[in-house]
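F.,

This is the one I mentioned.
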């Protein structure tokens, strides 16, 4: 289900994996499997965290099947 935000308690981590928390790009501009996409997370304290994410193929294995 779609979430606008994910709470990460102090000292803990959230791992993004297929079948659990993951990012889905809606209407991406010309990305293909193997590309790296720049993602910026906006934190509640006003800071931002940027990273590069690898675009993977959409397969049954992606969903843990």
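My design for it:
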């Amino acid at each position: 289900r779609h979430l606008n935000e994910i709470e990460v308690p102090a000292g803990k981590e959230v791992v993004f994996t297929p079948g659990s928390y993951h990012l889905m790009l809606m209407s991406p501009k010309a990305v293909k499997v193997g590309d790296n996409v720049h993602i910026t997370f906006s934190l509640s304290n006003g800071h931002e965290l940027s990273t590069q994410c690898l675009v993977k193929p959409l397969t049954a294995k992606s969903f843990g099947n």
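Residues 3 and 21 are 9 Å apart (CA to CA).

Talk soon.
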